[in-house]
Every structure is written in structure tokens, then in C-alpha cells.
Amino acid sequence: MSPSLQRAHSCTDIGFTLRKQFHKEEFRPHQREIIEAALGGSDVFVQAATSFGKSLCFQLPAVVDHGITIVVSPLLSLMMNQVEAMRAAGINASSLNSNTPYADRERIHRDLETGHPKTRLLYVTPELCSGPRFRERLKVVHKQRELARIAIDEAHCISEWGHDFRKDFGRLSWFRDTFPDVPIMCVTATANPQVRQHVLSTLRLDGEKTKMFVMSPQRSNLHLEVRYTRDEDDGRLSDFLCWIRGVYDRRRSHERQAELRQAGERAENVPGIIYTITRDECESLSAALREEGVGARPFHAKLAKDVKEETLARWIGNEAGYDIIVATTAFGMGIDKDNVRFVVHWRIPKSFEGYYQEAGRAGRDGNASYCFLYYSREDLERVTRMIRADCKDGSNFEARLRSLQALALYCENTDSCRHAEICKYFGEPTVPTCDFACDWHKDARDLELRFLQGLASEDWVSTQALRGTYDGYDDS
Ligand SMILES: Nc1ncnc2c1ncn2[C@@H]1O[C@H](COP(=O)(O)OP(=O)(O)OP(=O)(O)O)[C@@H](O)[C@H]1O
Whose CA, among 108, 135, 234, 331, lies 20 to 30 Å from 470? Predict the structure, then answer.
């Protein structure tokens, strides 16, 4: 038990809190153990598949425990969504970041200054945690024994071995140095053993005492497939149109009509996300799909805020014309739409972890969903160049390149299960069962044929690369 804070009594009925405040019937597997470990005052590391329900693991203790929980989160959209959901459940939650209006910021600072904040969950960016004003306020709160816990969401960002390293995450060791008695919870969906180790050591968490919950990354309801293509014979658009029209036609069939009518759904009401790697492609692809009568809308960082909000709201509301979001990687994290039926990667994404995070937006309701990635060796060259340009100062280049190469190997692999390869990448020792939920299990022979026939030869691509064919590809 922490000497500085009175922890929740062991007989607190967390099941009751789950039902009353979070309106959920029961815990998912492992949530109860994780929450109990946190309430007991331990440092906790949680690694679990996308859509597992990791946020609840720090939100529920924050409601039960005395004091305030600080949640460090890398993404504003992620913060906003969680704060809105907490407030809707009647929980006093706020966020403090570069977008917080002046009046709100002052209100939150005044709340902290009292030493007895009314706020139960405060979401902050790692940058903010480095600021002297915020740090001084937290010291006041800690002195009053009201600093309950530090939760670090997307904790893999701490490690420079991770694909998404952020310098300011590396400075979070300040929490343990300054408040050695305040427990820390780390949460991530995507870390390999090396990243986990690095996160613990950077935060100065004791590897022996920290309660580790490392669950399988497998999402057995995701059907994983790689589709091969090449510049010379780029059939992505017609291939995708053929697939999506097939899906719509099946939904229009006589047998399905009554079912759709009862659910109040249109045939095209098959929400999906297509990830592209540049804003230009995001615009041109969504326009091309609209020309073909498919309800697709672009979503990227350069769009006006109100356009983005409208697009998101209409997509979430399953409105006609907003069935598919064509997005850059800026989209997705923190978006918790449960009926996303497919995620398509138009080109190879920049990292293995990014690929799996993005694919993980599909099927959050547990129903079967489709994830496919169009892979070409030319794109691999392009993306390698983009990473090199991103890391001009040399930072993190090797780790990011390793992650991309691992993803390329995954794409070119034709002799094992996709789910097994993903588990292996994340260091999961058990081999998952796959019920025909990947292209290899569905038809290994066909996969091999598609691989042999679909790609440009390595020699040809490297000759083109030397000629500079793939240079100048960027997402600025
Ligand atoms: N015990 C539960 N019962 C029902 N729903 C739950 C439970 N726990 C969490 N959820 C719901 O599951 C969804 C996913 O939770 P959450 O956003 O925390 O996922 P996550 O593990 O952080 O995933 P990701 O890494 O993909 O963001 C949310 O809608 C959440 O409300």
C-alpha cells in the first residue's frame, strides 16, 4: 500500500462500479485482475490486443480511488474521445493540451492548485508534463496525498526501439523520480519484448515488482490477407471495386433483404477505412471511388476542422455517402466505431505496429471483419525513402526500418498463418488458432500463385531505384 495515498478498500465492489458508472455488464477476461493490481497500489504494465478495453483498466481505478489520475496520451483525438465518453458517464474528466481554450486551462490549473482536485481523470500530452507550471501544481497535489496514479497510454512511444518514439515520452521518468510512491500504469497494444524492457527501464519501473499483463495480440475475428500488385499492372482500384460491389450485391440478395430491413440498414452500409500514405492519394482515391458511386470521403490533417468533424460524425452515424473513410495514418487511433467491417491498406504502411494498430480499427464488435493490404515492392522502396526523409537527423531510423522490413517479410511470406506471424513478431509464445481467418489458411496454393505472379522482380525494382524512380515521394 502506498504511504502517500489512501487506497480503495479491498472489499470495494468494482463490479458494481463497472455497472453503475461504466454501464457494462461484466469484465472482459483479465480486466478484473489488472484493475485489482492497480487498486492494490502496484505498478502495472498492460499489453493487450486492439479493442481489448485497456482504457477501462485505468479509468475504473480512477473512479474508485481517492485523488486524481493523470493520463499521458500522445494523441489529441484520442484524449478528446475519452474525455467525452467519461463526461457522458458523469465522471469528472478534463484534458490539458495545446488546444485547450484559455479559460479551461485556467480552471484546471486552479483545480490542481487547491491540492484537492475535483477532477478524477486529467488527460495530458507528454510535452505538457515537461512544463514547470504543471509540475509545480502536481507537487501541490501530491503533498496533499491526492495524486492517485499516472497512466501512460500508448506506452510504446517511450521506447526509441518502438515505431512511434516521441522524445517527450522519454522525459516521463520525472514522475518516478519526483513521486516514488505514486504507482504507474503503462498501456499499449503493440510492443515487442525489447520495447517492453526499454519502457520499464526508461520509466525506472522495477521489472521484478511491476505486475506484467502481456496478452496475446491476436484478433481472431480479423480476416487477414495480402494482395500483390506492381506499378506496371496496377489493378488496385478495379480489384477493390470488384470486391466492395460483391459485398453490396450479397447484401442486396433476396435472402438478406428482410434482415437488412429489420436492422434499418442500406446495402452499402458497410463501414470501412482505406489507409493511404499521402494526402494527395487520400483525396484522389476518395474522388475516384465517388465517381464509381461508392460513398467515400477523404480524411487528413490538412482538412478544415469542421469538415473533419462532419465527416467523422456522418461516418459514425452510418450516413449514405459516408460509408468509407479514405485516410492518412492521422486517422483512427482513439476512434471506437464498433461496426467497421473492413480496413484496407492501399500501400504498405510505415511500420508493422502501425499496420496492426490500423487493422485493429476493424471488428471491434467482435464480428468477422476483413483486413487486406495491397503490397508492391515499388511501394516498399517508396516508403523506405519516406522513412529516411522523416529521420533526416538519424533519429530512430534503424528501428523504424527494421519494423518496415519485418512488415515486408510478413507480406512476402506465403508459407505460414498471418496471425501466427503477427504473434511471433510481438513475442507471443503461443501459436494462435486461426479458423480460416487468413489467406494462407484459406488457400495456401492460391496465395503462392498470387505471390509468384503479382509482384515486380526484385532486380527490376532495384534497377529502377538506382535510377531514382521512387524518389521524391513524400506526404508533406
Ligand atoms: N467490460 C467491458 N464490457 C463491454 N465493453 C467494454 C468493456 N471494456 C471495454 N469495453 C468497450 O470496448 C471498447 C474498446 O475499448 P478501448 O477503447 O479501451 O480499447 P483499447 O484496448 O484501448 O483498444 P485500442 O488499442 O484499439 O485503442 C470500448 O467501446 C469500451 O467501452
Answer: 331
In terms of C-beta density within 10 A (0-12 exposed, 13-18 middle, 19 or more buried), how is residue 245 classed?
middle
The residue nearest atom 3 of ligand 1, judged by CA position, is 24
Residue nearest to atom 5 of ligand 1 (CA): 24
pLDDT tens digit string along 113-162?
999 999 999 999 999 998 999 999 999 999 999 999 999 998 988 876 66
Q: How many angstroms is it from 28 CA to the middle of ligand 1?
A: 9
Instruction: Give the residue, by CA position, lying nearest to ligand 1 atom 16.
Output: 53
Residues 283 and 322 in one domain: yes
Q: What is the pLDDT of residues 326-339, one digit of tens each?
A: 998 767 666 778 99
Kindly give the number of the ligand 1 atom that is closest to the alpha carbon of 48. 21
For residue 445, the enclosing domain spans 222-467
Using CA atoms, how far apart are residues 434 and 419, in angstroms rounded to an integer? 7
Query: From CA 162, how far away is CA 396, in angstroms rounded?
Result: 9
Structural domains of the chain, count: 2
ipTM given for this complex = 0.98
Side chain identity at 449, as an amino acid letter? L
How does DSSP classify residue 153?
T
Q: What CATH number is given to the structural domain containing 456?
A: 3.40.50.300
Q: Which residues fall within 8 angstroms of residue 22, CB to CB, at 6 or more apart?
A: 56, 59, 60, 89
| Cα–Cα dist 314/322, whole Å | 6
The verdict on the CB of residue 360 being under 6 Å from ligand 1 is yes
The segments of the chain whose pLDDT lies below 70 read: 1-12, 160-164, 330, 332-334, 394-395, 473-476
**CA of 48 relative to ligand 1 center, distance in Å:** 11
Does residue 5 belong to any structural domain of this protein?
no
CA atoms within 13 A on the CB side of 388: 10
Mutational pocket test of ligand 1: of 24, 27, 57, 73, the residue with most ligand atoms within 8 Å of the beta carbon: 24
Residue 52 Cβ inside 6 Å of ligand 1? The answer reads yes
Query: Are both 251 and 209 inside the same structural domain?
Result: no
276 shares a domain with 400: yes
Rg (CA), the chain: 23
Residue nearest ligand 1's atom 25 by CA: 50
**Residue 155 belongs to some domain of the structure:** yes
State the closest ligand 1 atom to the C-alpha of 85, by its place in the atom list counted from 1. Answer: 31
Ligand 1 within 6 A of 28 CB?
A: yes
The whole model's pTM is what? 0.89
Q: Could you tell me if residue 285 is inside a domain?
A: yes
Grid cell digits, residue 40: 492494490
- Residue 256 is predicted with a pLDDT of 85
